[in-house]
Amino acid sequence: MPKMRAVQVSRAGGPLEMVERDIPEPGPGFVRIKVQACGVCHSDTVTKDGLFPGIQYPRVPGHEVIGVIDAVGSNVPRWKLGQRVGVGWNGGYCGYCDNCRRGDFFACQTSTEVTGLSRDGGYAEYMLAPISALALMPAELSSTDAAPLLCAGVTTFNCLRNSGAGPGDLVAVVGIGGLGHLALQFAAKMGCKTVAIARGIDEEPLAKQLGAHYYIDNKTQDPAAELQKLGGAKVILATVTSADAMKAVLGGLGVRGKLMVIGAVPSLEVNTIQLLLLDQSVSGWYSGTSIDSQDTLNFSVLAGVRSMNEAFPLERAAEAYDHMLSGKARFRVVLDIGK
Ligand SMILES: [Zn+2]
Ligand SMILES: [Zn+2]
């Protein structure tokens, strides 16, 4: 039996350990991917720390995967050996449940598969994926550069393009981290009047370089008042995990403005009087399915959006993961796995 290297977690809260495993064989509707790169995302803590009920261990994390199809199971139309593909958080959907029949594939009721959580992910030399989870990679992007677009990228791109904000509308991005540095680029390239909000003045030059037209330092300025001076935001994209930072910007929404939350906090206090007087809303956003990932990749090529990454080899996955957790990575961490 041919073997591969994989980095797995063998119990909730256990370490990331490099092991040798059999190379898996794809069943019906699945392909096998020879992994080239996999992003290390904060959501990998869900797998590592057992934050989701019913995780089966050992489990290989990783849901920002790019590689080449090197084996194809039965019942696989369209996809072929040698195609380079990406796989994100959404690990596939059934296509026949009521939510899928309404086009809400992200909310599939029968196959709630999550890459690297309910099925082994990309911290390995090979992985399996169902065809509903595959995004076709454009040739212009390298695998290492593009891996974070499969989670951080698709989440911010898909959120913004479904937010209702269009060219010329005021869009604010709270936080300049892994998500925020991509959100700023996407918002600016979509033609929005783009505002970066972060703590301190140090981030201002980078924010402007990423496309922000305005910068608000929420340490010394009141972000809500500053946004109102600019006319009030159509959309505020909160990428941070601080309820206080979200609460501080809410007053910056304009008429029919929307706070879109993609950073998870346990609770958020909202002034509902303001919401109902100005027809404002607070909403969450899921990431996206495989076609959303594919659209994200293609838009990134078209518009020159790039993730800023730090790369590590697979054998240093534990170190890469700790670096991601430290919050010091500029901005995404990627495992460089093979050619
Ligand atoms: Zn992720
Ligand atoms: Zn379904």
What sort of overall outline do the alpha carbons produce when their principal axes are compared? Answer: globular
Number of helices: 11
Strand content: 25-35%
Count of individual beta strands: 15
Order of helices and strands: EEEHEEHEEHHEHEHEHEHEHEHEHE
Radius of gyration: 20 Å
- Provide the structure class: alpha/beta
Give start-end ranges of low-pLDDT stretches.
none
Largest sheet: 7 strands, mixed
Q: What ligands can be seen in this structure?
A: zinc ion
Percent in helix:
10-25%
Rounded mean pLDDT score = 96
Cα-to-Cα separation, first versus last residue = 22 Å
In brief, what are we looking at here?
With 339 residues, the chain is α/β, with parallel strands linked by helices.
What topology does this entry show?
Layout lengths: L2 E7 L6 E7 L7 E11 L3 H5 L16 E8 L11 E4 L10 H4 L24 E5 L4 E2 L6 H4 L5 H10 L8 E5 L5 H10 L3 E6 L5 H6 L4 E4 L5 H7 L3 E6 L4 H8 L2 E9 L10 H6 L3 E4 L5 H14 L5 E5 L3 H10 L5 E5 L3
This protein binds zinc ion (2 copies).
Task: Provide the descriptors you would attach to this structure in a database record.
7-stranded mixed beta sheet; 26% strand; globular; 339 residues; 6-stranded parallel beta sheet; 15 strands; alpha/beta; single chain
Tell me what you see in this structure.
The chain is an alpha/beta fold and 339 residues long. Helices cover 25% and strands 26% of the residues. It has eleven helices and 15 strands. It has helices spanning 44-48, 98-101, 143-146, 152-161, 180-189, 204-209, 223-229, 243-250, 272-277, 290-303, 317-326; strands at residues 3-9, 16-22, 30-40, 65-72, 84-87, 126-130, 135-136, 170-174, 193-198, 214-217, 233-238, 253-261, 281-284, 309-313, 332-336. The strands form three sheets. Strands 3, 4, 5, 6, 7, 14 and 15 form a seven-stranded mixed β-sheet that branches. It has a six-stranded parallel β-sheet with strand order 10-9-8-11-12-13, with helices on both faces. A two-stranded antiparallel ribbon has the order 1-2. The mean pLDDT is 96.
